[in-house]
Specification:
Helices cover 80% and strands 0% of the residues. It is mainly α. The protein has one domain (7-251). The radius of gyration is 20 Å and the shape is flat. The N and C termini lie far apart (84 Å).
């Protein structure tokens, strides 16, 4: 006996599956290009491999892919805007708990970040897209992660419900991130590894806020506060470290 699935759920699953395929292609296409250039070993190939622009181009392309996928899925009817959480929030209801949760999230991440990074004598910005070293890096990174999670929530909630769907979306987003060879290499680096843990913590906080509110904007605010708290402490520690490294030269 065949299970009579809701056509809307099938469309949502199709959107989620296609997005995961596009995401995987976005991960492995740069890897294939890098390997091809490395095998050629020509002056042009070496210049391309050494260019810092690849990092920025890849991040911009990934953000554009996620935003484009969400827009197409919504306009073509594959995802439901209400299920995805793209509706105007009722701020009167959110004001009862969201400011407190966002503030605690920022303080929590700032405290953990300060404890972790305070023990590292030489600190540099290994965040994705050097997010904490540029004015727009952090908002772009936070938006990218939330859009990814929103697409996955919209695909999973019709099957798993409003509680398990967001948590499953956070788990799949983490698993897809670990498929990236660059992310796996970063796990062996204490500074880069910390940013992955920060993203995972922000995923959990955002998923919890979405379960309570059903609204993407609430989860985006919570996710942003997690990164904001860590980002402020990170910039302070970077400034102090660089200032301390210049003091001996001035004394000499």
């Amino acid at each position: 006996m065949l299970i009579d699935l809701d056509p809307a759920a099938i469309r949502a699953a199709t959107a989620g599956g296609l997005f995961l395929i596009a995401w995987a292609l976005g991960i492995w296409t740069p890897v294939a290009i890098t390997r091809l250039l490395a095998r050629r070993d020509t002056p042009f190939a070496r210049r391309m491999l050494a260019s810092p622009g690849w990092r920025y181009l890849g991040r911009i392309a990934a953000l554009a892919l996620s935003l484009g996928a969400l827009y197409i899925a919504l306009t073509e009817g594959y995802l439901d805007a209400y299920v995805t959480g793209l509706w105007l929030p009722r701020w009167q209801e959110l004001s009862a708990w969201l400011p407190a949760v966002s503030g605690i999230s920022a303080l929590w991440s700032a405290l953990l970040w300060g404890i972790y990074w305070g023990r590292i004598p030489y600190r540099e910005d290994h965040s994705p897209w050097h997010a904490y070293g540029t004015p727009l890096g952090t908002p772009a990174h936070v938006l990218h992660l939330e859009v990814q999670a929103s697409i996955l929530r919209g695909a999973l909630i019709p099957f798993l419900g409003v509680y398990w769907g967001p948590w499953a979306a956070a788990g799949i987003r983490a698993a897809m991130a670990l498929l990236n060879p660059a992310v796996r290499r970063g796990l062996g680096h204490s500074q880069e590894r910390a940013f992955l843990y920060l993203d995972l913590g922000a995923d959990a906080m955002a998923a919890g806020c979405f379960v309570v509110s059903g609204n993407m904007w609430a989860s985006l605010i919570a996710r942003g506060c997690v990164h904001l708290g860590a980002g402020i402490v990170h910039r302070i520690l970077l400034w102090r470290g660089r200032r301390a490294s210049r003091l001996p030269a001035r004394i000499a």
